[in-house]
Amino acid sequence: MIEFQGLNKWFGSALHVLRDIDLHVSKGEVVVVCGPSGSGKSTLIRCVNGLEPFQSGRLVVDGVDLGSKSPPLRKLRMEVGFVFQQFNLYPHKTALENVTLAPIHVRGLPKAEAEARGREILAKVGLADRMQNYPGQLSGGQQQRVAIARSLCMQPRVMLFDEPTSALDPEMINEVLDVMVSLAKEGMTMIVVTHEMGFARKVADRVVFMDRGAIIESGKPENFFKNPQNERTRDFLSKILHH
Amino acid sequence: MLGNLNIRVISEYLPDLWEGFLNTLMLSAAGFTGAFIIGIIACGLSIQPVRWLRGVGVAYIDLIRSTPLLAQLYFLYFGLPRLGVLLPEFTIGIIALALNSGAYIAEIIRSGILSIPRGQFEAALSSGFTYVQRMRLIVLPQAIRPTISPLIGQAIVLVKDSSLLSLISVVELTRVGQKIALDRFMPVEGLVATAVGFLVIYYLLKALAASWSHFNRTNSQ
Q: What main location does UniProt list (chain B) (predicted)?
C-alpha cells in the first residue's frame, strides 16, 4: 500500500530531514511512528500525501508513484486521509459542513447523500448532538473527532495521523484514541505519529522509531517495548515511559 | 469667520449642490464597485504561482501605488484621446478612481488571505480540493471578514479622492463649491457647502462600518 525506498529529503541544501527511509506498509496494517521532536516523523507522513516533496528515492502510495514527474496528487489525496495536530477544521463551517464539504465538491456526491454519510460518521465518533456546532463551540477533543470524521467521510483507503493528541488537554486524549482504536480494528491502513505508547501497544502492528531523519529501529510492539535493540531507542523510551 | 456665513447664497445653490452630491455619490459608488472587481483580480494575480501572471498583478499594484492619483487622472484624460478613445469626463473619472483604489483594495484582500493560517490551506489541499475550490470554499469566505473594516476605510478615501475629478470638469461636490466661490466671490461659503456634503457621505459609511462590526461581534463563532 505504501512503499518507501531509499527516500531522502532536504530542507534547503543543508538540513537533511529524511535519510534513506525504507518502509513498507501493507493494506490493513497499523504503523506507529515515534521519536524525539525534529526527528522527521511528521515530514515522513506528510510525504505520503504529497504535502512535502522529496529529492531522491522512491515513494509509491496506493499505486501512485510520488517521485514521477506530475503524480495525480488530487486523486491520491481522495484516498489518503490526513489528521493534523492542530485539527485545521474550517472555522466558518459547522461540524456537518466540515465533514461533507470534500465529499460534495471533490467526490461529487449529491448533497443529501453526503449529509447522510456525514451524520452517520459523526454519530460513529460520538458527535451526533454536535453536527450544527461550529468548531469554535467544540472542545479540542471534539474538534479532533470532527477532523477524523472529515477524513473518513471521503472513505479513504489510508489514514495518516500527525500527532493527533498532542494539542489536547489530557482528559480529552482518550476520546480521540478510542476512535482511532476502533478504526484500526476495522482494518484501516494507518500510519500514526504519536507518543501514546498505550495506543501503540493496543493496536499497532509495528512501531517505528526515528531519530535525526532516519529510521533507527522498527518492530512488533511487544518486542519493541520489552527489548529495544538500539541505545537511542532505549534512551527515548526511558524518557517517555517512566515519569 | 463662520459667524457671518452667508447661508442665503448657499441656499440659492441648493439645486446645484444636490446635483453635485448625487454625482459624487454615483462616481464613488461606481468607482468603488470597479475598484473592488479590479482589486480581486489584481490580488488573485499577485498571489499566483505562475510567474508572469504574478508579474502583471504586482506591476499594476506598484505602478498605481507609486504615482499620484492626479497624475493618473491626467494621464487618462489626455492620454486616452490620443489613442483614439473618446470618453465622457464622467466615465474617465470613474475609470481613474477604480484603477487607483483597485490597487489598494488588492493589497487589503491580500493581507486578508495572508491572515489565514497555513493549516487551512493544508487541510483543503489534503482533502483534494482544486485551487479554485480552495479559494472559493475555504480561503475567501474566511478572508473577507477581516477585510471589511479596511475596505470601508478605502471607500472613505475614494469618496474624498473623487474631488480631484473637478479638475477634469466633472460636476461633483467640489466643483459646485468652486462655482459658488467664483460666481459670488464667496470661497468660504462654497467650501463649507462642499464639506457638509462630504461629511454626510462620511457618516453614512461610518454607520455602515459600525453596523458591520456589530454584526461581526454578534455572529462571530
A: membrane
